[in-house]
Design brief:
heterotrimer, A mainly alpha, B alpha/beta, C mainly alpha, B: alpha/beta, six-stranded mixed beta sheet, 39% helix, C: MetI-like fold, three-stranded antiparallel beta sheet, two-stranded antiparallel sheet, 15 helices, 7 strands, 67% helix, binds adenosine-5'-diphosphate, binds magnesium ion
Chain lengths: 607, 270, 512
Amino acid sequence: MSEFAGAGAEIGSFYPMSRPDTTPPVEEHLPPREWLKKNLFSNVANSILTVLSSLLILVMLRGLLGFIFNPLRQWNATAVNLRLLMTHAYPADQYIRVWFSVAAFLILTGLSLAVWRAGSRIPVPDVGKRVIALGVFVTLATLLAPFSTSARLSWLAVAVFLLVSGVAVSRTSKDRSVSSLSLLVGACGLAALSLWVIPYGHHSFIIDRTPKILAEPGTVDLTTKLPWTLMLLIAVAAYGAGLFLRDRVPAKVARTSLVLAWMVTPILLLFLVLRDPDFDMGHVLSTDIPIFLVFAVLGSALLFWLTNPETGEVGRMVAVTVLFLAFGSFLTPMRMIIRILMLLLAMFALAGPTFSGDRETRHRYAAVWTGVAIFVSWLVTAINTPSTVPVPGQFFLGGFSMTLMVAFFTLLVSFPLGVMLALARTSSMPIFRLLATWFIEFVRGVPLITILIFFSVMVPLFLPDGMSLSEVAAVTIGYALFASAYLAENVRGGIQSVTRGQHEAAEAVGMTTSQKTVFIVLPQALRVAIPPLVGQVIGTFKETSLLVIIGLFDLLFVAKAIIPNQTEFMGSTRENLMVISLIYWVISYSMSKASQRLEQRVGLGEQ
Amino acid sequence: MTDVTDVTETGADSGGVARSDRDLSNAADMIICEDISKWYGDFQALEGVSATIKEQEVVVVLGPSGSGKSTWIRCINRLEEHQEGRIVVDGVELTNDLRNIEKVRSEVGMVFQQFNLFPHLKVRDNVSLAPIWVRKKPKAEAEEQAQALLELVGIPEQADKHPGQLSGGQQQRVAIARALAMEPKIMLFDEPTSALDPEMIKEVLDVMKNLALSGMTMMVVTHEMGFAKEVADRIIFMEEGQIVEVGTPEHFFTNPTEDRTKLFLSQILA
Amino acid sequence: MTAPTNQASSTHAAVSQRVPLWRDAVVVKWTTQVVTLVLVLAGLWFLASQAGDNLVARNINIGFDFLERPPDIQLSEGIDTHPATGGRALWVGMVNTLRMAAVGIIFATVLGVVVGLARLSNNWLVRRLGTIWVETLRNIPLLVQIIFYSSVLSTMPRVGLDTGPINGWLHISNKGLSMPRVFIADGFYQWAMVMAVGGIAAHFVRQRRVRLHDESGANTSPVIWALGTLIVFGLIGIFIHPLFGFIGPIMGAVAGLLDSLPLLLPQILLSATAVLLAGRWIRSFLAGRRSAVGHLALSDDDYFRIIFTAIAALMAVAVAIYWTGLSSWILNSGSDLFRVIEAKFNVDGAARPFDAMRPDIVKPGKFANYGTNGLTMTIGFAAVFFGVVFYTSAFIGEIVRGGILAVPKGQTEAASAVGLSRAQSLRHIILPQAIRIILPPMGNQYLNLTKNTSLAIAVGYSDIVQVGQTVYNQTGKTLPVVAVWMLFYLATSLTISVVVNYYNVRMKLVER
Ligand SMILES: Nc1ncnc2c1ncn2[C@@H]1O[C@H](COP(=O)(O)OP(=O)(O)O)[C@@H](O)[C@H]1O
Ligand SMILES: [Mg+2]
């Protein structure tokens, strides 16, 4: 019986609805006096701790504010160089492309927030409490910061306003609540409004190094405030559209297409919009399209035959032959696109028997192959085509966009690789296990930076004649291999949490090992592995900062090495680092919070 | 519970004679085990087990815990590999031949003590997944069949739920429907009611009874003596990896020949 | 077999036929694996041959000769700032890495435990501080933090005579931090021998006190007695440690013996060990698969394991025999080690085990700098040190908190029910259980910390990576240097894992 209870609990943990309602622990509501007594002065030791930590907080806060509001600080270094921080040397006259890409991301974000029902409802009095806390903080800061009297007065006015409105809001009925997303939009809206109203100063980007006045009084530049306001509107509109679609499109379809969009959009934006390849139509028509057509037609026919349930073992042998041909194609001079398509086709062919079925299924499989072939052919051609956007230096993006790009490609590549490694490490085949274990343990045993240096230096040496790879691509491969080893360990944890009974049930209904893996094991394993996987996404994002050591122009490089070398902003390193720390922090922190909420929603958080 | 009685009524036309009175001597052999042995490391779990099970026959396997009952029936659909002897299922011998293993597995349905439903799939998908990807049926057809089977086991209204939301008895009936969806010729049951609360046992046994009446070849490991008496054509008693005694329920429960059988019966019926 | 068995089966039509190879489960399984292995090896070989061709084409030589050659390098800090050879330079880098890792692990653990406990405190403010610490530090990339600390330190005022927040005790300047130093002096090693004896004595004293407690039931405070014994030995040791001077000559003799041994000896020993280990493993493996009646059931995987072990052993033998460098290295480094120990014991009888000094500032020419008396952290060291310690402390804090929270609440309640105080229940009930949960992820953090010290390259602390980069920038030997890095880190990671696993296993044993 106890075994059964265990199994039940385990199954139940997937679906919160099936469990008895666990009410969250309600925090006792104490009057302020007693709250203070209980939490800060319950006994002598506690009181001493309270006094000591208050002193610590005051000293640290004073130091921090003294640093921030020191007139010597050059905070406008970031304001003036915002463009450098975001995209490095991307030409200013082509900036509409950047804004287009940002808009595309925001649209995806808005749709996803709606479709996945993100956000929660917060009782209005709680909002009031937070505003009061903010007011207290501002009061404290105003008293501690090295302000002039007039500045101090105006800050105090802000604090008083916050306190009063906070108290007013917290007095409202406990039953009214507000969605956290609308609060976020409200805050962003206020920020956007302030761009139009408050005279932060008119900063202009230094294009040529002629001395000029960097900041004039007035509100910020129109090229800053107009796009950002538009972006906010677009995001809100996308969320609205998401709400509208949510009830009209089946959830599964909406989610699948959004996930696909998240994977494909960055690539399209990068190589279609931002890089804008200058296709040589003659070459495309005479070479690229014919190659694609051959692969699409012959490949589809092959796959259509392979997915026929009657094909049997002959099909498997043909698939293995294709794999050998694909590997062989690297031994002879050949177009890269042919090799890549061959490899992909071999993958599809090997997976064919797993997905064999009726006519409709087989048609769908061939169609998926054709879609992938189109995308890959386009991508490879685009990458190998010169760009219409002239960018000095080695790579057309830098700064924050390079950080994001490397993180994205790392995850895109490392995810399938990591899953494959995890499967190999848990497989019943000893040689697979050995290979995977050695790879994983090797990669986990050495620091990332040594792998990155190895790849940035060595990849050019490994490539056959006539093939080249930009340093960014080489380093991204290093990142992806590194991430895949860690990812494999997380996925392995998930795979091992799938019970033996699940394997047996799948085998008993006649599934092959790969069908069992695809339909039964991985869906369960990945769900269990969500929290560590999100942790890994955050880790990868933070690790992109190591690009600076390779000498690539990522966010950290711009902040640490480029801006402080401008004559106007000598010695502004600390300020810049604080600003980019804030960027990193906001993104990592919100991802980790979101994952915690997801965990609670899926019900894995509690045991 | 009401829907189960429904099924009993519909199933009732297919039979109704006392099971042990049937003459199966002319029926074809469905499962043949010849002298099979199996070791776990240095522990021998099966010691020369031999038995033949005829088409449409219902065999109940009894025996104390650890006597090798599960091991035996798991060998029959190759969840375990036997090391010596021969197992032939519906004319197909179980060897290293991949095609034979696939064939046998899709002809033999299995129901586990712990249900082992797929928690990430809806009940309907639990039932239709294997027909779609293993039997290669069109999706619509497979789902229609799933719905029909869920009706047969008496829970058509649960199709859109996840297994975690069902009671144990309902889960086990879904598991039976999942096995039946592969249209097996043989069904194996490994203590299907041992993990159930007493009030749910009957609903599962009723479904099994109807299945037996419909002419399915069944091999059932169970401790439900009522079921054994009522439904079994033959009872096989195992101990320490060996078959100790074989006989009709009548013979078995009234005058068993072996001392070990008597001891077991006295313990279990006490 | 007394059971009446059914004999009908013997007449059945099904005859076992031969299975075609491509349908045989075992054949398919092993072909798949071997084909994959061949493809992987072929891929690696292809890449290696490409690299080989390219190296030849670019006239790059990848020999390890630079290890023996004098480099033109000056290191910012370490046991030897003007290394005589490339190998020596890398060695200095390794020592710097290990030093940073060791110090970092100690401080990060202490700070992390404090942070973890702070997050569980009853005091709201302390809890909040802990949360802010954790959430701030773990969400900002470590590299950004390290560079930030470095840039903060480099904007400190210049070093000057009579400066520093506390002159003569603590100096902070653009040359880093300098503070008083307690260090091991010449007499330490002999004193340590006294302490070893003291440790044994303390052990017996403790046992005796425990027995007394068991007999009489009185509180005999065994731990305090043991500590007291140690302290007494420590104090006496300051005066009597020259007694152990005799160890020096013995060590010298051992070193001499190692010098005179033939190369063949380590070769034979290594080969024999490999063969013996493999043989023992195979024997015990076969014994595990053999039934009481001698029936041996081996699966295809079992055959693979046996063959694999045998091949590995043969390869080890081949390496031991053909790579004479290994054997001579073992002998040489063995004798070097004993000579080093000999030197440590050949000291003046009046030498003190410990000494302490306050920081000093020297001004040989125009610019002032820290002297050698104090414990000086260069900016690079300080930045990496604070970076890894703070960053790791946030993660360790979470691990500690999670470990303590994971101990079921009933345990605390049960402890207070039997009348233990809060401190006692923490010491005797909660911590022992929490440690078992905490230890494995803590080991991971130690590994991470060690690997993270490699970020030193960004702020110019001379760790193995930074030194390596300097070396290959000068000699062009990137590939060998990368190989040295990876070997070094693999060895370090392996050592840490082994130590952590050892404690893990011990903890699990205690549980039983
Ligand atoms: N995977 C296994 N490894 C080792 N021993 C096993 C394994 N499975 C079962 N056994 C042993 O084989 C014997 C028979 O088990 P089983 O067939 O489950 O018995 P039953 O189902 O009759 O209770 C038991 O003694 C059990 O301990
Ligand atoms: Mg059993």
